[in-house]
Specification:
By secondary structure, the chain is an alpha/beta fold. The chain has helices at about 20-35, 45-60, 75-85, 95-100, 120-125, 135-145, 175-190, 210-225, 250-265, 280, 330, 410-415, 445-450; strands spanning about 5, 40-45, 65-70, 85-90, 110, 130-135, 150-155, 165, 190-195, 200-205, 235, 270-275, 285-300, 315-320, 340, 350-355, 365-370, 380, 400-405, 425, 440, 455-459. It is built from 13 helices and 22 strands. Strand 11 (about 235), helix 9 (about 250-265) and strand 12 form a beta-alpha-beta unit. The relative contact order is 0.16. The structure holds pyridoxal-5'-phosphate (PLP). Pyridoxal-5'-phosphate binds near residues 238, 276 and 278.
Amino acid sequence: MKHQFSKISSVETIAAPMPCITQLIQDKIDEFERMGSEDAFCVGDMGDVIKKFNTWKELLPRVEPFYAVKCNSDNVVLKTLADLGAGFDCASKGEISQVMKLGVEASRIIYANPCKQKSFVKYAAKHQVEMMTFDNEAELIKVREIFPHAKLVLRILPIAQVKVQCQLGNKFGCHPNNVHKLLQRAKELGVDVMGISFHVGSGVGEAKAFAFAVKQAYDAWQIATELGFKMTLLDIGGGFPGQSNAPITFTEIAAVVNEALDTYFPHDDSVRIIAEPGRYMVASAFTLAVNIIAKRSITPDVPDVDGNTPQAASHMYYVNDGVYGSFNCIMYDHAHPEPRVISDSPDRFVSSIWGPTCDGLDCIVHECKLPELEVGQWMYFSDMGAYTIAAGSTFNGMPRPRCFYICSDDLWNQVHPEHRAPKRRCESLSADADYPLLMTGPDMLTLREAANSISCCND
Ligand code: PLP
């Protein structure tokens, strides 16, 4: 049976995902139903990641992106970005090891966690990952002891009050009033400070945050130079939006960043400028499909647990991924995932959507309007690539969703000219679909291996 995806009245403002993704998910669902599978799954569009990277290069030509691995550490994402020439922002030994296993050299890694475990610093030293951030004296002492030749980057605290999805300044960053003292201490300790970094906050809502922070970085840079440090690196951190309905566009931010850089760090070959984008690269690339595993219909006039009596019929849908899994973004990233469903019905009912665990906190959407759905039907969520799968648990024994990857021929070939995409169609796709490449398998290590192992395609 062919289903049609419909918009939901309460979330009609969401931009439709690429038709290709919609069709692919529909085809995948049909395939799953034929196989008798109801497991949640996600589709990662590596073409979207490549396009984001290309746009970055075009709009921020002076800034090298060091992808923040924490945002989504999917190996296929990392390999795609590595092949594109990106650098990586790693927060731990595990992330450093993961990107190095993909062949990324130490010079393309910044260990951007100002508070590091000693053994992780040892690991960085062993693998010559020299660039690392700090924002306090104890960290300076620790690094000097373990890795005296580390190239240190002072993370400052941007003090401008701007709207952000997730604050980071409550935890990290040296206040401008303390910069001189901390750098003075670094001088006494004899460590090599060579850069300034900041993070304006994840999912920034106002471009001016970058203008203020670049000016602050300039001030700190002057202090460091006066103290005799040879400063060569400016790291403007993350915060760039990645989802289709972000309050501000990347283009707007890029214009402000470029102007600030040209003002405070005019073109100079001795200054390297990097950034640590996370959500920008991956948010829109992933779409998550979940199956309705259970349903409860609420009849009017029966009081709920709080004693409130609903006026109209409503439905509670239980799906097989939740806030302990990919939807942890609701808790940790203040996200508001918006459902799309498969239905031709014009009727809408008040509905709520719940995750699969036994916890009452496990609610994905408290209230929205949906057509009536039945157990076994599917819904899907776009923009699920950032801070989702990466922090998902298997609480209550619930599995993580399996991921399928796609990439259009032209973009794939741009990254891998030596390994052109096979001009074949995957048998799992409908006859009229034209997906040049479908890669499957959670264990896949490299895109090249993935391409070599596409065995499900018809000639
Ligand atoms: N860099 C650091 C040090 C971070 O802590 C984070 C996110 O927490 C990022 C980069 C990525 O931020 P975003 O996803 O907003 O680009």
